[in-house]
Predict the structure.
Amino acid sequence: MSEKLSPATLPVYSPAHLPAYPTSQLRVHRFVGLAPGPRLIVLGAVHGNEIAGTRGIERVLAEFDAGSLQLVRGSVTFVPVTNPLAYLKVQRNGDRNLNRNLQPTTTPQDFEDSIANVLCPLLAGHDVLLDLHTFQAQSQAFAMIGPPNNQGDLEPFAHADQEQSLALRLGVGRVVEGWLATYAVGVQQRLARTHPSDRAGLLSTDPSYGVGTTEYMRSHGGYAITLECGQHADPAAPQVAYRAIRNTLAHLGLVDAPDPAPCLNPEFLRLDQVVDRFHTADRFEQPWASFDPVVAGQQVATRHDGKPVLAASDGYIVFPNTQSTPGNEWFYLAHHSTRDIFGAAVRP
């Protein structure tokens, strides 16, 4: 791919029919180059109503099938629909959220447990993950990365430079960090509110419940990025997914194409607080979009009993979810990160 990709130059992929995704299997596509190289895996529809990644993957698969795109080294695995039950229902979850508490189990209790038993070994057999998502509230696409290199107990990691380097080449201008650390704090707040009979609630009080695809990938020696490609219904979101896949293939050297130039002026934010919804009558004060700014003391929402929910500090709303169920994340607050987003792997 020699030309620079942009939404204006991306071809439109409109197949006569799209493939079926039965709930009894995972459709997995793998290409292996004849020369050694990184092992990439790309996921779509981890949440069933987030199909931009699915459409982007299908476009790339069509290019491989047509011979206009060829793998020259390493390998790439595509899973267009990672949660086929949720995809069939056209909703976020099948039985529960696949992107929480992701781990193998010998006693699967729901559909997502069965998927995890297949997906986790698949992830562990790769070096790099690109997980393609969309979000509910209106906003621009952004990438989510893991922690700096560290040897801590929560999320030890050794590939931050490589992860940051890839994030800056996906075609988006905003990067967010701090997911698992913020979620772990939220878990402590959730413990006192959960009844022992509520399995989903009990899962959400376990720190490992914050572990999804990217966290699992990092825990098995790889690195990973979640790309939020835009709003669920945004017609441009599949193009964002497609461009990110093509840029990733080029950056990792899996195809013969120039390395995309990094974004040199990204907005880099860190999540620092998660606020749960307690009741179906909890309501936002306005129709928030992700990354809307707030100031300390500003009323963000109101609880069902009239108690105001105030911003603890200046920052930004992230992932406001009007469809959130009681006991789960309602919105996040973020501020500008002080971490060096460029790092040694990006600088000339």
Observations:
- Residues 166 and 248 are 7 Å apart (CA to CA).
- The two ends are 23 Å apart (CA to CA).
- The chain is about 25% helix and 20% strand.
- Residues 272-336 form a domain with the OB fold (Dihydrolipoamide Acetyltransferase, E2P) fold (CATH 2.40.50.100).
